[in-house]
């Protein structure tokens, strides 16, 4: 058995209207397909909070920086649909490019501030493409809840900001990054790694977790980040695009651990660009009385 697939906004809305008549709570999980355990964890989380779960599959040309990357993106719709049915997802919405961007389409959603820096500095126009398609998907589905992985942490912030600014009545629900046993964050790009690169790949996560632990232990942030940058290169990555500490709440740059923070990284392993992030959080409340030493620990430190 496979999950029902619809390809037009009209069919999608007909399903949603039926579910609304039943009084159902509806969730959406936007994806570009090539579903892995990370996506499936979002589906499971959505099924716990909603009566009906829509997964969208659209490889969005507007968020790719080059035609080669778009052409190389894995397209595995049949396998994806096969993975969704046993979980109990209710609908796969897989529009084609003309349905999403009909002739004459002329609108771009730009979210400033949280789009600046990090991936935004290296992938020009990428987040405009993401914000535009996600705005459309949220409005097309009219869902009550939308689930996004923390793996794409900057994207999560952009989507939250966009939904708030455009008054889209939806709750954006973040879900933790899913990792392989050796720590590598799951990504559709991991299939592009050669066996040798796959061995090296988890060293990005270990460098991040190690850095987060050292920062939590009181080592100066800039010193820790410089060491982690070198460790990533020594491990076999060819280039680090960025490695930064940002505020968990609003992505503001941080140089001291005075509030909950994230370490975020993007690095190239051969021809593959990988991103990852880990949380650095105070163990006790960061509203400790002045003068009291804040105890810090690394969460997400599962490896
Ligand atoms: O994270 C992704 O897979 C994409 O950026 C998204 C959110 C589905 C928009 O195309």
Q: SSE layout and pairings?
A:
Layout: E1 5-6, H1 9-21, E2 26-31, H2 37-49, E3 52-57, H3 67-72, H4 77-87, E4 91-93, H5 97-100, H6 119-122, H7 126-141, E5 145-149, H8 153-165, E6 171-175, H9 195-200, H10 203-216, H11 221-235, E7 239-247, E8 261-269, E9 272-282, E10 296-297
Parallel strand pairs: 1-4, 2-3, 2-5, 3-4, 5-6
Antiparallel strand pairs: 7-8, 8-9, 9-10
Helix pairs in contact: 7-8, 10-11
This protein binds pantoate (PAF).
If you had to describe this structure to a student in words, what would you say it looks like?
By secondary structure, the chain is α/β, with parallel strands linked by helices. It folds into two domains: 5-175, Rossmann fold (3-Layer(aba) Sandwich); 188-294, 2-Layer Sandwich (Pantoate--beta-alanine Ligase, Chain: A,domain 2). It contains eleven helices and ten strands. The chain has helices at residues 9-21, 37-49, 67-72, 77-87, 97-100, 119-122, 126-141, 153-165, 195-200, 203-216, 221-235; strands at residues 5-6, 26-31, 52-57, 91-93, 145-149, 171-175, 239-247, 261-269, 272-282, 296-297. The strands form two sheets. A six-stranded parallel sheet has the order 1-4-3-2-5-6, sandwiched between helices. A four-stranded antiparallel sheet has the order 7-8-9-10, with helices on one face. Strand 8 and strand 9 form a beta hairpin. The two termini are 37 Å apart. Residues 283-303 have low confidence and may be disordered. Residues 30-32, 60, 63, 130, 133-134, 152, 155 line the site of pantoate.
């Amino acid at each position: 058995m496979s999950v029902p697939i619809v390809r037009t906004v009209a069919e999608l809305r007909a399903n949603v209207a039926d579910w609304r008549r039943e009084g159902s709570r509806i969730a959406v999980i936007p994806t570009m397909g090539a579903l892995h355990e990370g996506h499936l964890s979002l589906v499971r989380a959505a099924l716990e909070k909603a009566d009906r779960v829509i997964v969208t599959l659209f490889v969005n040309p507007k968020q790719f920086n080059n035609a080669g990357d778009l052409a190389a993106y894995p397209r595995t719709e049949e396998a994806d649909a096969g993975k969704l049915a046993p979980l109990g997802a209710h609908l796969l919405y897989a529009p084609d490019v003309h349905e999403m961007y009909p002739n004459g389409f002329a609108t771009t959603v730009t979210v400033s501030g949280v789009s600046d820096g990090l991936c935004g500095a290296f992938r020009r126009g990428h987040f405009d493409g993401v914000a535009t398609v996600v705005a459309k998907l949220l409005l097309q589905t009219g869902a009550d809840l939308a689930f996004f992985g923390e793996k794409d942490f900057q994207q999560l912030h952009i989507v939250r900001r966009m939904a708030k600014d455009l008054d889209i009545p939806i709750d954006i629900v973040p879900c933790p990054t899913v990792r392989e046993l050796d720590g590598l964050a799951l990504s559709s790009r991991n299939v592009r790694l050669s066996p040798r690169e796959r061995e090296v790949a988890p060293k990005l996560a270990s460098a991040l977790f190690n850095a987060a632990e050292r920062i939590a232990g009181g080592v100066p942030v800039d010193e820790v980040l410089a060491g982690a940058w070198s460790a990533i290169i020594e491990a076999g990555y060819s280039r680090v695009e960025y490695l930064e500490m940002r505020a968990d709440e609003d992505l503001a740059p941080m140089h001291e651990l005075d509030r909950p923070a994230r370490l975020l990284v993007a690095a190239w392993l051969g021809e593959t660009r990988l991103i990852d992030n880990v949380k650095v959080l105070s163990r006790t409340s960061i509203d400790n009385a002045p003068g009291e030493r804040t105890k810090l620990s690394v969460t997400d430190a599962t490896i």
